[in-house]
Amino acid sequence: MIPFNRPFYPPTTLKFIQDSLATNHISGDGKYSHKIKQFFDQKFGLRYNLMTTSCTDALELIALTIDLKKEDEVILPSYTFVSTANPFLLRGAKLIFADSCNDSPNIDLDHVRQLITKKTKAIVIVHYAGIPCDIEKLIKIKKDFSTIYIVEDAAQCVDSFYKGTPLGSFGDFSAFSFHETKNISCGEGGLFVSKEKSNYHKAEIIREKGTNRMSFIRGEVNKYGWKTIGSSFLPSDILAAILWAQLQEMGEIKSNRKKIWNNYYEGLECLESSGKIIRPKFSPQADHNAHIFYLITRSETERNQLIQFLAERSIKASFHYLSLHKSNFFKSKTGNDSLPNSDKYTSCLVRLPMFNQMNIRKSNKVIENIQAFFK
């Protein structure tokens, strides 16, 4: 059996867990949490970062920090996971769904521009599969609408870059995921990032149940108290220790995944040339992290038949998101918006097995069986 995903934990994982236990501080913001914070600052220049219990919580922390009101509108892709939407809906914002690009599952920023109104408070973009959306258009939107917050849902983006700049550093805020399915994982975990120091300090208070406890710990005040609404977003330092072991192997993890990704890309070229599938599209200025390899089939029926064909040969492939604007939960709250590209990816996108322990031999088996299906 070739599984769709298999978590990877380096041999040093237990050593770091034991070290964390030995500190007698396994709650949030312990020894390894501080190491993670410094790592993302020094490696990626993401200075104002805070570990959270998930990427969902990081997005909730962003929604609280920007002080959304019920009349505010938030533009976001329909082709994404519900965690992109829920944090803003929980704050009472009106969700405005944008379509995907015709040649990529990433958000169509030309459509985003058409959706902007005086009520738009934030635009949330997702870099699907760790491949950047159209960054040049994103920068232009930010320049033209400077009062609108740009939020990068960078859940899939650790160690992805555009023109040498890491994804997650182009917006006002970003959120990363360390879920078990991600390249760098601690089972469950996330990271909040703010570009501005003022928003970082506001988020720091919200993250500590609405108190200025961190100022007290730093010796800036002689006592701390309740300052605003908040919640508990801090992960255990044991999870940070697990993540620290992963980060030490980040270069090797990316290198291994890129080998498999490139093998898929080259091995399936003939099927794209003959018009049977579409492979991922990306800018030559993008250095993606090989988080996902996907292909697009010609129809939903063909997609489902391919997944079944591979399953019968002990290969686990999978579809991905269902368009949020057509979900049972949301479709009663909005009109019949036409987002044809989002719906196309809902119906026709297939994700192939991709994990750190995978090798060329296994990826060749996947390629050979996909080629056999289309004969």
Description:
There is one protein chain. With 375 residues, this protein is of the alpha/beta class. It folds into two domains: 13-248, Aspartate Aminotransferase, domain 2, CATH 3.40.640; 250-373, Alpha-Beta Complex (Aspartate Aminotransferase, domain 1). It contains 14 helices and twelve strands. The chain has helices at 13-22, 31-44, 55-65, 82-90, 109-115, 135-144, 197-207, 213-217, 237-248, 250-267, 269-273, 300-311, 340-348, 360-373; strands spanning 48-52, 73-77, 94-98, 120-126, 149-153, 161-162, 165-166, 173-177, 190-194, 286-287, 294-296, 349-351. The strands form three sheets. A seven-stranded mixed sheet has the order 1-9-8-5-4-2-3, with helices on both faces. The protein has a three-stranded antiparallel sheet with strand order 7-6-10, with no helix packed on it. Strand 2, helix 4 (82-90) and strand 3 form a beta-alpha-beta unit. The mean pLDDT is 96.
Radius of gyration, taken over Cα atoms and rounded to an integer in Å: 21 Å
CATH class of the largest domain: Alpha Beta
What proportion strand? 5-15%
CATH superfamily of the largest domain, by name, is Type I PLP-dependent aspartate aminotransferase-like (Major domain)
Structural class based on helices, strands and sheet pairing? alpha/beta
Summarize the structure.
With 375 residues, the chain is an alpha/beta fold. Helix content is 39%, strand content 13%. The mean pLDDT is 96.
Describe how the helices and strands are arranged.
Elements: H1 13-22, H2 31-44, E1 48-52, H3 55-65, E2 73-77, H4 82-90, E3 94-98, H5 109-115, E4 120-126, H6 135-144, E5 149-153, E6 161-162, E7 165-166, E8 173-177, E9 190-194, H7 197-207, H8 213-217, H9 237-248, H10 250-267, H11 269-273, E10 286-287, E11 294-296, H12 300-311, H13 340-348, E12 349-351, H14 360-373
Parallel strand pairs: 2-3, 2-4, 4-5, 5-8
Antiparallel strand pairs: 1-9, 6-7, 6-10, 8-9, 11-12
Helix pairs in contact: 1-9, 2-9, 3-4, 3-7, 10-14, 12-13
